[in-house]
Structures are given as C-alpha cells and as structure tokens.
Amino acid sequence: MRFSLKQLAVFNAVADFGSVSKAAQTLSLTQSATSMSLSQLEKSLGRPLFERQGKRMVLSHWGNWLRPRAKQLLHDARQIELGLYDQHLISGEIQLAASQTAAEHLVPELISRIDGDFPEIRIELTVHNTQKVIEGVLNYQYDIGIIEGRCDDSRICHEVWCDDHLVIVAAKHHPFARQKQISAAQLEQAKWVLREQGAGTRRIFDSAIHGLVSDLDVWREYEHVPVLRTMVTKGYYLSCLPYLDVAAQLESGELVALEVPGLNMARTLSFIWRADSADNPVRECIRHEAKQLLSRLPSAR
C-alpha cells in the first residue's frame, strides 16, 4: 500500500480545518511533519488534494473524492482498535448534530439509553439550527444529524424519526388567550418574537402563514427557545414554538395555545447523513435505538 493511516488522518484534519497549522495542533504533530505527511500522500496518489486560497487550504476535485473514503477508512481503523481492545461488537466515536427541540427533549434520553447498552460508543453532540446541521453534515463535520422538517438535497439521506407540531402561544394574561379562535387579521396586529432565519421552526411557520398573513410584526428574533418562551410568558408577545418545547407551560396554564383556523403546522424530526458515506455500524445503532425509544414517548409520535 502506497499510503498510511497517519497520512489519511493528516489529510482529514487539514480538510476539517482548512489549515496545516491547526491540523498539526489537533494531531499533536509539528507543522513540518504534518506538511511532509500531506506532501507524501499527494505524491503517492499522484494527485493534488488541496488548492491554496489565501491562507486556507481548500479541497481540490480529487480531495473531495477522497474525503468520504478516507473518513470511512479512519472510522473502520478506530472501530477495529476499540473492538479488539474491549471485545465489543459495536464501538467507536460519532459526531452527532441536532436541532434544539430534539437536543433538549429527545437526545439526552437517547444517549443515556446507548450509554447503558453500548458503553464503548462515544457520541460527540453539537446543537445548531436545522440549516447549520445540514451544512455540517454536507461539510463532513458531523456523521449524522437530527433536523426539523425535510432536507431535499440529493447529497443527503433522510429518514423520519418522529412527528411533532408547532403551536402559536400567548401568555395567560394576553388578550388573545381568552378567545376561542384567532383570525389572520389579529395575527397581523400582534407583536411577535420568533426563531431566527434558518431555523426549521421558523421555516415551517413562514411556510404555514404564507398566503394567510401578509405582514407580520416581528419585534425580535432569537436562536434560543427558552428566551422566546420566557418573553412570551412575561410579556404581551406571540410566538410559534414546537409543542415539545412548551408542553409543560401549556399544562400549567402559563401559556395558552391559540387556535387559528386553516393553519397547519405539523412537522417531523428526522435523521440525515451523507448519501456517499459508507455503512457505519454506530450510526445504524443510533437510528435503531432512537426507534426503540420512540415507543416510550407518546407525545413525540
């Protein structure tokens, strides 16, 4: 074989960071040793794997072709190492990115379940909005993602995990809270606090009200659901949030779900991964355990 796993690890790190120096720090190598390994790999393969754009190292056509294959080889090598050491059939590390609702209400129990049954699986969790999760999966930052809604990019595999829905909420002291139904005209009169652009929740809400409401008075946009939830609870705003994120407040009476005729905001929470990635036993294990978990969560089905 004309290349080594070390050279592939160097290539993978440079691709992740776009920098030889940052890759060297991550791998605990000197910069010269990192540069030499990368140069030897390119020489042995007979192809340029990167192009320099200013200070950044950007993957060439050949580098993009190699990247998923190198990642799979490195993953398999790590699994062999862990599997032989501890004699577990399923072991290894995986990068998981999840949108806020899933990360707060579903992922903790999923990880706990996996920790109990598969102690040699290491899950690194990152929380982002749906768009950033999709971008991270496409850029090889994450092995698997959990998003709100769909992703129709042909480079992404998509599998629905569970159903959910959004609700328009107001505080119990809001004038709209005492009404059985709210009209589209009343929605236009209200002050709104919403998730930021790029969030799956915001995308579904915008799509649902398109054609129903022409002009919405959006006062604030924030990334964090607890901020929006508290603002609505304490103030005179409306918001549109996932049911799972406000279920406790609706049950206690702090918040009221407003009924708007003709407004459908059903959605799904789904797993995504790159279509060109090879079979990954850890990823399959996570998806299987997630389906088993669902039977115990009637509110999320």
Overview of the structural elements:
With 301 residues, the protein is α/β, with parallel strands linked by helices. It folds into 3 domains: 5-67, Winged helix-like DNA-binding domain superfamily/Winged helix DNA-binding domain (Arc Repressor Mutant, subunit A, Orthogonal Bundle), CATH 1.10.10.10; 83-160 and 272-300, 3-Layer(aba) Sandwich (D-Maltodextrin-Binding Protein, domain 2); 163-267, D-Maltodextrin-Binding Protein, domain 2. Helices cover 46% and strands 24% of the residues. It is built from 12 helices and 11 strands. The protein has helices at residues 5-17, 20-27, 31-45, 61-86, 100-105, 107-117, 130-138, 184-189, 200-209, 225-234, 243-252, 281-294, and strands at residues 50-53, 56-59, 92-98, 121-127, 144-148, 156-171, 191-195, 217-222, 237-242, 255-258, 266-274. Strands 3, 4, 5, 6, 7, 8, 9, 10 and 11 form a 9-stranded mixed beta sheet that branches. The chain has a two-stranded antiparallel sheet with strand order 1-2. A hairpin with a 2-residue loop joins strand 1 and strand 2. Helix 1 (5-17) crosses helix 3 (31-45), helix 1 (5-17) packs across helix 4 (61-86) and helix 2 packs across helix 3. The chain is elongated. 35% of the residues are buried. Belongs to the LysR transcriptional regulatory family. Keywords: DNA-binding, Transcription, Transcription regulation. Residues 3-60 form the HTH lysR-type domain.
